[in-house]
Amino acid sequence: MRYQVRAQLRNLDGIVASEISSLPNVTVLVGDLYISPPTRSSPTLDPPTTKLNEPLIRDLFRGAQLAFINTTFWGDEYAIGCALADAAAAVGVEHYIYSSMPDYSAQSPSWPSLPLWSAKYAVEKYIQSKLPSLRTTFLYTGIYNNNFTSLPYPLFCMALQPDGSFEWQAPFHPDVPLPWLDAEHDVGPAVLQLIKDGPPLLSSPARRIPLAFELLSPRQACAAFARGVGRPVRYKQNPKIEIKVKIPRGYKDQLVALEKVYALGGPDGRRQPPYFGEHELERKVPDEALKLWEGYRGLEEYAREVFPLEEAANDLYYDFTKPTARKSTHIYEMNELILAEHEAHRRHNTKRCSKLARGFRTYKHESFRKISDEYLAH
């Protein structure tokens, strides 16, 4: 069966938006789900609470039979999430698939809420209590494999070391398993199978599915990553999440809350909340996901086949063919120059950029091009 898809995008910038908008069976509606005040030109880092874009929301669901909804924190996520569900119920959507996450404080008052998750959970509760006729499946997604990057982003920075190895620092307990998911590879097939399976019965309890295909502790995740990239990868538990680049305030609040969550219990990881908030959901990983899609891409495969390509897209190149210590050092120095160049551009420091560019050209010679070309050819 060929579906006619209607998608909402905030804008058409970027590769993903261009790809989606070019598909023959996809109609793209461009615009925010909230209306920005006229005094704000762009919601770049800190979007204000605004009123809903009701005409766009109505257009999204006009004539729709199925819906997959994944909201973001741009605008009032709770208000937007409720409005989307209301609109779906109003037109009689047959199966509503909503990407939710837990509110830890709802499970235990001593557990802090994660602000970017608690709004999703509140929408889930709204749907269950106010829209009982809207047949809904709630998806809880694991940690995305492609969160990892050697760029200095917080929480999932896989930092390249001078000896050619990688180090990941995060507040997670080193030996407590976490759920993992390759969002780019596996969410689509899983949601498609949910659509084919049909909606839950109205008489049945709410259907909640933990979408994750691996349960790996941080140490196990690093071991899988090391097998993929062919280099040592070490995990270092750090209760403080380092923030080295500008991030939206909402995400910063999320990171502060994460530090509090994973400080609970100290060295006793059993006293920390399960990632999905409930042990019942955690015990269903990966069986529930595998019922939907067996062709998943694990963390080791991601590290071997995708991570080098994503790094190359950021102008970061590695030799994955048993590099010498000298070559590893050169690549490390080259990547450090690239990162510094990115930071200088961000700060609009023209003089600094010019100096870095000269240094960068010293390292970006033909051997590094050959390394990346040979890897891409395979």
Observed structural traits:
four-stranded parallel β-sheet, Rossmann fold, three-stranded mixed β-sheet, single chain, 15% strand, 2 domains, 378 residues, alpha/beta, 14 strands
Give your account of this protein's structure.
The protein has 378 residues and is an alpha/beta fold. The protein folds into two domains: 32-145 and 177-212 and 244-297, NAD(P)-binding Rossmann-like Domain (Rossmann fold); 315-377, no CATH class. The chain is built from 15 helices and 14 strands. The chain has helices at residues 15-22, 54-61, 77-91, 104-107, 115-130, 183-197, 218-229, 249-261, 279-282, 287-292, 299-305, 307-313, 325-346, 350-363, 366-377, and strands spanning 5-9, 26-30, 34-35, 51-52, 66-69, 95-100, 136-141, 143-144, 158-160, 166-170, 178-181, 207-211, 214-216, 233-237. The strands form five sheets. A four-stranded parallel beta sheet has the order 5-6-7-12, with helices on both faces. Helix 2 crosses helix 3 (77-91), helix 7 (218-229) runs parallel beside helix 11 (299-305) and helix 13 runs antiparallel to helix 14 (350-363). It is globular and about 60 Å long.
Secondary-structure blueprint of this entry?
Blueprint (H helix, E strand, L loop, with lengths): L4 E5 L5 H8 L3 E5 L3 E2 L15 E2 L1 H8 L4 E4 L7 H15 L3 E6 L3 H4 L7 H16 L5 E6 L1 E2 L13 E3 L5 E5 L7 E4 L1 H15 L9 E5 L2 E3 L1 H12 L3 E5 L11 H13 L17 H4 L4 H6 L6 H7 L1 H7 L11 H22 L3 H14 L2 H12 L1
Large-scale geometry: globular
The total beta strand count reads 14
The CATH architecture category of the largest domain equals 3-Layer(aba) Sandwich
Strand portion, in percent? 15-25%
CATH fold label of the largest domain: Rossmann fold
User: What is the terminal-to-terminal distance?
Assistant: 34 Å
Report the structural category.
Answer: alpha/beta
State the helical fraction: 40-55%
What is the gyration radius calculated from CA atoms? 22 Å
Largest sheet: 4 strands, parallel
Detail the poorly predicted runs: 323-330, 349-378
The tally of domains stands at: 2
Order of helices and strands: EHEEEHEHEHHEEEEEHEEHEHHHHHHHH
Mean pLDDT: 86
